[in-house]
Write a structure and sequence with these properties.
- The chain has helices at about 10-15, 20-30, 45-55, 60-65, 80-90, 105-110, 130-140, 155-165, 175-185, and strands at about 5-10, 35, 40-45, 70-75, 95-100, 115-120, 145-150, 170.
- With about 190 residues, the chain is α/β, with parallel strands linked by helices.
- It folds into two domains: about 5-60, Orthogonal Bundle (Multidrug-efflux Transporter Regulator, Chain: A, Domain 2); about 70-185, Response regulator (Rossmann fold).
- The protein has a five-stranded parallel beta sheet with strand order 5-4-6-7-8, sandwiched between helices. It has a three-stranded antiparallel beta sheet with strand order 1-3-2.
Length: about 190
């Protein structure tokens, strides 16, 4: 499950096993910190919900207390890295982002902190995306990292080569932003 940053009172009622009115009363009574959207709806941050549940001795579901998933973006162009970060973080899910500008830098970072998902440009100088993909998939400690390959090259042979190297998904630039984001997040749910 991808962790969300904010929850509705209805979602909190399901998490806590109480009536939505009970959650609204907790907010009114200042027991549970919340804010109001411009539309008048209440939202509670994940951190405030966890603090509330700890304070009142409620069991905290594992997916609320775990670290959010880490997605690593690898591209030799800074503009593309910024664009990808904006696309991936555009929803209300809580996601950590790491960035690398080369295949070697990505492998070094993965050695320090293994991501749930790697979004990898294929055409990079030095170690290309296919080589990175092969190294990760052949290593028992990293073979389960999900990999989404990106390239501006529309040659079908590239797609076949990348998928054979172990990529889970393949996209050509320019990408359909909505579909790309949806497919990437589906891989780590």
């Amino acid at each position: 499950m991808i962790r969300r940053s904010f929850f509705t009172t209805f979602e909190i009622s399901q998490i806590c096993g109480v009536n939505p009115t009970t959650v609204q009363n907790w907010v009114k009574g200042k027991k549970l910190r919340a804010f109001q959207t411009p539309g008048g709806h209440r939202r509670v941050s994940r951190e405030d919900l966890v603090l509330f549940m700890k304070e009142f001795g409620m069991p905290i579901p594992a997916d609320l207390s775990q670290d959010p998933p880490l997605i690593m973006l690898v591209d030799d162009e800074k503009d593309i890295l910024e664009l990808l970060e904006g696309v991936i973080t555009s929803g209300d899910e809580e996601i950590r982002i790491a960035k690398a500008q080369s295949g070697v830098e990505a492998l070094l970072l993965i050695g320090e902190n293994k991501p749930s998902l790697l979004i990898l440009d294929i055409m990079m100088p030095g170690m290309n995306g296919c080589e990175v993909c092969q190294k990760l998939k052949s290593n028992p400690s990293t073979h389960n990292i999900k990999i989404v390959a990106l390239t501006g090259d529309h040659n079908p042979a590239i797609k076949e080569r990348v998928l054979r190297a172990g990529a889970d998904l393949f996209f050509t630039k320019p990408i359909d932003v909505s579909e790309f984001r949806k497919q990437c997040l589906r891989l780590i749910q």
